[in-house]
Amino acid sequence: MNCALCNGTHFSLISQKDCKSGKELNIYLCDDCGLIQQLPLPSPEELRHYYATEYRLDYKKTYHPKPKHIHRSAGLALSRAKFLRANGITSGSLLDIGAGSGEFVTICSRSGLKAEGAEPNVGYSEFARSEYGANIRTQELANLEGRYDTITMFHVMEHLPSPQQVFEKLYDLLNPGGRLLIEVPWGLSPSISPSNRYFKAHLYYFDAETLAACASSHFDVIAKVQEGNLMILFEKKNHLSGIRLPSPDYAKNAKIRALRCGWWSYLTIGKGFRVPFRKLRKIYTENRMKRLSGSSILDRLMKEAA
Ligand SMILES: [Zn+2]
């Protein structure tokens, strides 16, 4: 077994359990670079089969988004669009990879970007087109072509077997000076519950240092936000460079932090004690949305945000 980032062969076992199914799942931290990864990786066939059949059902229990999913997704989309605006991205072409039910692409189109999306799931991409008239193709990352000023990818990178190859592909899809916004679950976040941290579908658990290292030969980091999730805004490099790995000290420190991510740190540093109250509020808000269509939920949230 080799590390996907540094090719190292020394690992520390971090977890042995899939938080969704309770089945065995081995998660390791590379002692040389600190990348947390599932080992061995599932084969390409296993992955293809999993996404074609189980994935959406595993996660959302449905192939078509329900109002509560749209409400969540629209709320996230609004804050991501705000982050783009705050970083000066207000015009030009944008491609959202893994566009899901299309709320983000719709919001970006309405705020002046020439936005389109690609989503491999048939049910979700059809919904995006029929509900919002969004420009979203049913398509896999590997088949994407064209050139864009900005690419966004929310919660996709952690599912893909070779992050460095993905960054190469994204580099080719961007115009010179293009921007790339990547969001993944933050692998070392204290605010993720230990009962909700490691999954079969997630092959990697990134920290800012390891995600930046995976991108380092093709992209520079411009801005980052690290809370429950990790969001990094990258800029395409003018000239390719060698890969810049995290230091061995980083790896040592990451191991200590990963092993500390238990209930105590979740409830104290991660403020996990607040979660039941937040959940109650969410149930109340989502109940109010139950009979609304996707478009009216999105319109309502956009109006509130404006
Ligand atoms: Zn490594």
Q: What would the keywords be for this entry?
A:
306 residues; alpha/beta; Rossmann fold; seven-stranded mixed β-sheet; four-stranded antiparallel β-sheet; 11 helices; 11 strands; binds zinc ion
Write up this protein.
The chain has 306 residues and is α/β, with parallel strands linked by helices. It has a single domain (11-305), classed as Vaccinia Virus protein VP39 (Rossmann fold). The chain is built from 11 helices and 11 strands. It has a 7-stranded mixed beta sheet, with helices on both faces. It has a 4-stranded antiparallel beta sheet with strand order 1-2-3-9, with helices on one face. Helix 3 packs parallel to helix 11. It starts with 10 loop residues before the first strand and ends with a helix. The mean pLDDT is 90. The structure holds zinc ion. Zinc ion (ZN) binds at residues 3, 5-6, 8, 30, 32-33, 35.
Class per helix and strand makeup = alpha/beta
Largest sheet: 7 strands, mixed
Which hetero compounds are present in the coordinates? zinc ion
Number of strands: 11
Write the CATH homologous superfamily: Vaccinia Virus protein VP39
- Provide the gyration radius in Å: 19 Å
Return the CATH class: Alpha Beta
Q: What is the H-and-E element order?
A: EEEHHHEHEHEEHEEHEEHHHH
Distance between the termini: 50 Å
Largest beta sheet: strand ordering: 6-5-4-7-8-11-10
Given as residue ranges, the uncertain stretches (5+ residues, pLDDT < 50) are none
How many distinct domains? 1
CATH fold label: Rossmann fold
- Residue fraction in strands: 15-25%
Write down the overall geometry. Answer: globular
- Tally of helical segments: 11
The share of residues in helices is: 25-40%
